[in-house]
Here is the input.
Amino acid sequence: MSSQAVDPIHDLAVIGGGINGCGIARDAAGRGASVLLLEKGDLAQGTSSASTKLIHGGLRYLEHYEFALVRESLSERERLWSMAPHIIHPMRFALPWVPGLRPRWLLRLGLFLYDHMGGRRALPPTQSIDLRRHPAGAPLQPGFGPGYVYSDGWVDDARLVILNACDAADRGASIHTRTEVVKLDREGEHWTIHARLSSGETSRFRARIVVNATGPSVLALLARANQSTDRHMRLVRGSHIVVPRLFDHDFAYFFQLPDDRIFFAIPYERDFTLIGTTDSDHHGALDHVTASAEEVAYLCEGANRYFSRQITPADVIWSYAGVRPLVDDGSGKPEAATRGYRLELEGKEGEARMLSIFGGKITTYRHLAAEAVDMMKPLLPTLAGKEWTASAPLPGGDFPMTGLADLLAGLSRDYPFLDPNWIDRIGRAYGTATRRWLGEARRLDDLGVHFGHGLTEAEVDYLTAQEWAQTTDDILWRRTKLGLRFDAVQTSPLLRWLEERS
Here is the structure.
């Protein structure tokens, strides 16, 4: 079945609903452009929901002399925290010194640069610690002594993407999920974009500029538009595992391995520990990327070098993997490839243009988006004003960056029938927007069907109506992380509820 409806000509069509695409859509819509965003699956379904969940400068990038990237990333940490203090919060990382690996002077130098390169203000500085006495040393095997504690940030990566899309939509952007671009035709000063919907129907859209923000598929989309580039991409798979909680404090860990790689162990969703990441060149398909058995075993073995409690692949509750689209800079090892980004504007005067995004990382998405929109500004008279996103909160984030505890306390006071753990989850997910769907509820029954673990019909209604959720995976793994708690029996009523309303 085919549909021949054609939209008006948009100023720009962003193809790709990951963090860079949604960030660009938000920035451009806020400057007055008519924006269309097309995503073949769900928002944040690919790389952008498969990160290590960190807003960080990238301490290890200093070893590869990526000083500009580290400085840019460090300068964004507190800015992003202030924009979204519900889904981003500071975290202290313990870094043990290990004899025979990086020397102590190198760690101290790196951490000194980390503290002073990026305009740190609210985050506490690095401290030297003795792991024999510090709480972070308690879960570790005997023998660790000197170490350091430094600051970075944690983020709910998928929700960061979705909130950017929500703000873009609030500012007039048209967001289409489950809409796969199959072909692009340059027709004078605009593009005609041919897309296939999840129903099998086809549709066409038009735009003056196409933004290719498809991440690992950036070269494939260029081919669909009959465009060429001199850029080469290196696709690197990063895998993570989630296991039952390995420690009872709020510190995270930055660990070194004898092969010169590093990995993190992070408190996750109250009852779990997140461990990752690997760096492996990826040569397979980009749909349904999974962690290999070898990667899972590698992460377990890495954790067992440090923690007293030993784990095996049988302890892994969940594993996930994403493919990072890195600019191929000729690095020998995948972990050494640059995490920087490149923007390439193609086309000549008098014809439709295409802006392609190569590389990038979640911490620098806002700065990348501002730079991308600035590049398009001379080409689109509707784009007005300067970069504005640095001081504008994301939906639900309109409260002080240190005010999360007060927000949660207010929700507990006004909705005393909700379990404190539920309040903690929803307050951290929706911030001040939580009240939009809790409304005037005075008891749990007022929120409709309770699917389990604090997920109610009122919340699911909100996610489907306001956040483009359509499937159980959309809800349980991207909008929330309740997939860690739901089993198949508990998921079935939610699936039936969604099917009845589709």
About this structure: DSSP finds 13 helices and 20 strands in the chain. Residues 67-83 form the longest helix (17 residues).
